[in-house]
Write a sequence for this structure.
């Protein structure tokens, strides 16, 4: 999995460090210790708001709390007034929390003016600032190579955690930075390829699910997952793969090829029939994909490699689900078809018939499509492959990167990233609405914002 920061203090980091200390995160400072020991619980204790230039516009509750305690110890405030001031600050919404507001809240209290003078002469206690400085000094003077490693904690792979891990492995990072690894920036650039990127995300999701049920041992393989050029040195170079990364990707692809052979199980003497059947079946799933996306293809229109691989992966997952006896309930099929009708604006029976005709779907085949799509959702999107006899975890694989490379989109995204900002803007495919933006890992559909991000990748 892609790495995260491992040492942190103050801000909300002290709270997160307390939560994750048993997993190896090293917390620094009194705020971290208070959260770890349970003396602090609420996240508003450390939350503040900032201006666009980074200046704080509110005061953290931990700083108010520490300052009031110091004021009592210094004889500036009585314990009763400090208790009332503390309750007023805690009841104030954190973006509006400040000593100016607190002093106003004390009204005509005689001790309020004394507190104001004391604050003006350096009475403020800044715990967050002090902990941040302590963290910097700790990092500067410590050899982390010698830090003891905590015992590994076994985390149950609940359905919620599996969905989260699958989402991370099949998505681009939202935040942009020149410090990100080149591959992460290429993946971010791929979002501007348009619908092929959406299909690559789907392909990544299916590849991850299939990998978890694929035979681990050596065995017969079916062709179809290989790019012919994948065995060439040039392919690894274009896709920026080290020898070890190339070998690992090849291993994963071969596991999918073995799964395809195991699921089809056509005798060797029937290879010609197998090839014909494979083309026919993939053509069927391609039509289903076009129906789900309401893509109307003209004569001779080619779907592209990413869509072909997506249809192939969907076919394998559907076959695995069929063999496991996964049949969605009737009410789920009705619900999904209703959602599909709303998505494509099929409000009348006449419009439904037109949609079925356009995609060459009969009523019986429509039912098969809906069943196959719901199997996809249950096994891959909800990350529940256990019903198919899951054999391994795939949490450590960046599946979206695999999908982009296998489909040839990585090279296109890399080319986009390496062109001039002006050329990027001319060739980018931007989402037309928010739903489309979210499908492509954007958090907005504002054209100006997206073009600015594209030029600064």
């Amino acid at each position: 999995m892609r790495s995260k920061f491992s040492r942190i203090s103050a801000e909300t980091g002290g709270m997160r460090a307390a939560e994750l200390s048993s997993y190896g995160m090293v917390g620094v400072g009194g705020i971290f210790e208070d959260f770890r020991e349970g003396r602090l619980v609420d996240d508003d204790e450390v939350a503040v708001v900032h201006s666009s230039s980074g200046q704080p516009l509110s005061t953290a509750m931990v700083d108010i709390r520490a300052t009031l305690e110091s004021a009592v110890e210094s004889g500036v405030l009585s314990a009763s007034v400090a208790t009332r001031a503390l309750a007023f600050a805690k009841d104030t919404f954190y973006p509006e929390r400040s000593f100016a507001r607190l002093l106003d809240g004390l009204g005509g209290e005689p001790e309020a003016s004394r507190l104001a003078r004391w604050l003006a002469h350096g009475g403020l206690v800044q715990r967050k600032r002090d902990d941040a400085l302590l963290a910097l000094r700790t990092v500067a003077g410590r050899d982390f190579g010698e830090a003891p490693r905590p015992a590994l904690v076994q985390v149950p792979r609940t359905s919620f955690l599996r969905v989260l891990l699958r989402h991370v492995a099949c998505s681009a990072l939202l935040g942009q930075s020149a410090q990100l690894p080149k591959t992460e920036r290429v993946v971010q650039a791929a979002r501007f390829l348009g619908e092929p990127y959406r299909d690559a995300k789907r392909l990544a999701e299916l590849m991850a699910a299939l990998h978890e049920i694929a035979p681990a041992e050596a065995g017969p393989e079916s062709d179809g997952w290989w790019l012919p050029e994948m065995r060439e040195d040039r392919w690894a170079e274009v896709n920026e793969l080290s020898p070890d990364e190339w070998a690992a990707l090849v291993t994963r692809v071969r596991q999918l090829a073995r799964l395809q052979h195991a699921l089809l199980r056509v005798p060797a003497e029937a290879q010609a029939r197998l090839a014909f059947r494979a083309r026919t079946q993939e053509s069927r799933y391609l039509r289903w994909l076009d129906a789900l996306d309401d893509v109307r293809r003209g004569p001779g229109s080619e779907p592209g490699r990413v869509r072909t691989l997506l249809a192939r992966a969907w076919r394998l997952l559907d076959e695995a689900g069929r063999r496991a006896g996964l049949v969605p309930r009737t009410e789920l099929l009705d619900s999904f078809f209703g959602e599909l009708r709303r998505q494509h604006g099929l409000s009348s029976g006449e419009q439904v018939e037109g949609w079925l005709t356009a995609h060459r779907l009969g009523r019986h085949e429509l039912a098969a499509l809906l069943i196959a799509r719901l199997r996809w959702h249950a096994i891959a999107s909800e990350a529940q492959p256990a019903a198919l006899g899951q054999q391994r975890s795939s949490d450590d694989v960046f599946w979206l990167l695999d999908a982009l490379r296998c489909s040839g989109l990585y090279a296109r995204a890399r080319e986009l990233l390496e062109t001039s900002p002006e050329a990027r803007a001319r060739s980018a495919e931007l989402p037309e609405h928010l739903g489309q933006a979210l499908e492509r890992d954007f958090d907005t559909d504002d054209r100006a914002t997206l073009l600015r991000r594209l030029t600064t990748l």
